[in-house]
């Protein structure tokens, strides 16, 4: 059902002229920003935030803090589904790919794929499957096979020839830390990623990404106010260049400041023992309009769409494929 040639990759620029495609998950950060009366101003402002933060972190040989800019592409991954007489494409994954533009040398430098991660199947798992499994149960539980199908689909894509033809390194995905975990500052300090935080117990999202084959580490970059969760393959600290890491930090910190200002645009820095909270009141808002309530509603709608158009019609085939899949 899913073979080496099953994945179709398309990309479009994320710039001030961006309009979400019909296949885009409207809960994604970039799609949410690109709708409404303020769409173009939103897009200009977030791109300005990313570029300013990149130059802030890449400060060497950059006295005017304007040497670099970041070009972003939205990479959409479609999955060809061959089932009986049908041959359709399901919108599987969207990620962001960065390119670093060095104005001084007139170079375009490859950045990192991953960054923001968007998945219809993840919407189904978290917004449909998990609530239904826990309905009328006195305590919260996770289904025993939770995340395995999604994880195998993701690993299959990352190890495919389609991925290798388009990207020269494995992805790094950067997300917010969990609000129900406590993170403790360590003495480990990376020149770009910043100070490392650790926690005693992984979050549900951490376990979900583990099924995708990814490890997690938490770092609070220079002049940030809270740690970010970095999901990666291999060795985060030695497999990627300084500029590649900065491209991910600058991109995702900007989105997190907009989406979760209570954590990432707080007016105080995370202490040594830190539990993030969305009820925190001492924070500043950006000038960018973001509809969090709509995002929550759309996640459920998109999860139901996935259930009806992907999970139910191909359930037996997907289970059979996932059970036999090995990366």
Outline of this structure?
With 327 residues, this protein is an alpha+beta fold.
User: First CA to last CA: what distance?
Assistant: 16 Å
- Rg, nearest Å: 20 Å
Shape: globular
Strand order of the largest sheet: 1-2-3-4-5-9-8-7-6-10
* Proportion of strand residues: 25-35%
The oligomeric state of the chains shown is single chain
- What do the pLDDT scores average to? 90
Order of helices and strands: EHHEEEHHHEEEHEEHHEHH
Number of helices: 10
Largest sheet: 10 strands, mixed
Q: How many β-strands, per DSSP?
A: 10
**Helices and strands: which structural class?**
alpha+beta
Stretches where pLDDT is under 50 for at least 5 consecutive residues are none
Helix content: 25-40%
What does this structure look like?
The protein has 327 residues and is α+β, with helices and mostly antiparallel strands. Helices cover 35% and strands 26% of the residues. It has ten helices and ten strands. The protein has a ten-stranded mixed sheet with strand order 1-2-3-4-5-9-8-7-6-10. A hairpin with a 7-residue loop joins strand 8 and strand 9. Helix 2 crosses helix 7 and helix 3 packs across helix 9.
Helix and strand arrangement:
Blueprint: E1 7-14, H1 29-33, H2 39-57, E2 68-83, E3 86-102, E4 107-119, H3 120-133, H4 148-158, H5 161-166, E5 172-176, E6 183-190, E7 194-198, H6 204-210, E8 215-220, E9 228-232, H7 242-259, H8 261-264, E10 273-274, H9 292-311, H10 315-324
Parallel strand pairs: 4-5
Antiparallel strand pairs: 1-2, 2-3, 3-4, 5-9, 6-7, 6-10, 7-8, 8-9
């Amino acid at each position: 059902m899913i073979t080496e040639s099953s994945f179709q990759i398309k990309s479009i620029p994320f710039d001030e002229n961006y309009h979400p495609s019909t296949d885009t998950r409207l809960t994604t950060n970039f799609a949410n920003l690109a709708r409404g009366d303020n769409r173009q101003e939103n897009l200009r402002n977030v791109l300005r935030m990313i570029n300013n933060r990149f130059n802030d972190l890449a400060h060497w040989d950059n006295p005017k803090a304007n040497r670099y800019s970041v070009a972003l592409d939205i990479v959409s991954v479609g999955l060809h589904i061959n089932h009986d007489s049908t041959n359709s494409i399901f919108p599987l994954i969207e990620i962001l790919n960065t390119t670093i533009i060095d104005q001084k040398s007139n170079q375009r430098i490859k950045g990192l794929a991953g960054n923001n991660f968007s998945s219809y199947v993840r919407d189904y798992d978290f917004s449909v499957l998990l609530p239904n499994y826990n309905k009328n149960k006195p305590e919260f539980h996770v289904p025993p096979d939770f995340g395995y199908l999604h994880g195998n689909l993701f690993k299959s894509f990352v190890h495919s020839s389609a991925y290798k033809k388009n990207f020269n390194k494995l992805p790094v995905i950067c997300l917010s830390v969990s609000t129900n975990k406590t993170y403790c500052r360590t003495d480990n300090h990376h020149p770009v990623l910043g100070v490392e935080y650790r926690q005693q117990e992984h979050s549900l999202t951490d376990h979900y990404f583990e099924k995708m084959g990814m490890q997690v580490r938490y770092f609070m970059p220079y002049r940030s106010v809270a740690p970010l969760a970095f999901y990666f393959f291999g060795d985060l600290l030695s497999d990627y260049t300084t500029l590649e890491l900065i491209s991910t930090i600058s991109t995702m910190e900007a989105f997190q400041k907009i989406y979760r200002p209570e954590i990432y645009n707080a007016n105080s820095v995370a202490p040594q023992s830190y539990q993030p909270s969305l009820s925190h009141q001492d924070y500043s808002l950006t000038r960018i309009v973001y509809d969090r309530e709509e995002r929550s509603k759309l996640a459920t709608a998109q999860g139901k769409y996935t259930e009806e158009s992907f999970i139910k019609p191909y359930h037996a085939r997907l289970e059979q494929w996932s059970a036999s899949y090995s990366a």
